[in-house]
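Consider one such protein record:
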Amino acid sequence: MIDLKKIDRSYKTGAAQTWVLRHIDLNIREGDFVTIMGPSGAGKSSLLNVLALLDDEWRGEYWFAGEAVHALNRKQRADLARKRTGMVFQSYHLLDDLTVAENIDLPLSYKNLPKSERQAMVADILDKFSIVAKKDLYPSQLSGGQQQLVGIARAVVHKPSLLLADEPTGNLHSAQATEIMELFRTLNEQGTTIVQVTHSEVNASYGNRLIQLRDGWMTSDTATAKAEVRPS
């Protein structure tokens, strides 16, 4: 599904160049459930943003379902992301002026679906996440955990082929966290490819593959059992 070749990402910090991703070669197969782990500053969120097509300032080759992302313009990348991916953000990224139901409907609004079908899909996901009573509230009226649930519901409502999650249970209590990870497992079993960034060993145990990053380098991948260690 995804093939990254020699992906580099850096930021200008004054006169210096700070590298956050170095020579990342990564192949993600359809149906994988990948966990990305590593210490703070390892490049985990940077890699997730590249995969999610949220970041354009990288160098290298990125192939998504046979399509050369590196050859697409910004609008084409955004269209691809809207159609094929769902993203769960650590900081929610809900729109303050939309209700819970309207936030969840947002990904569906980009698809050519009848309004009645969209409403039915939103109603189904509201019920699945037990937040029907919150549907007319605004994000500012929700707790952090509730906002996270809405963010996850929005990410999965349009049944994306690729789901990306940055610390998806970081703001949830343990019972909610287990429920969300079980949902991710079910989605994966139904064919959704999942990539999560987490510090949680429990969350990592739901996946079938673990990638370790350090200082922007991919140091291990259980799919290959072969380390790509930073040169000395």
The chain has seven helices and ten strands. The CA atoms of residues 77 and 133 lie 36 Å apart. The two ends are 32 Å apart (CA to CA). Residues 174-189 form the longest helix (16 residues).
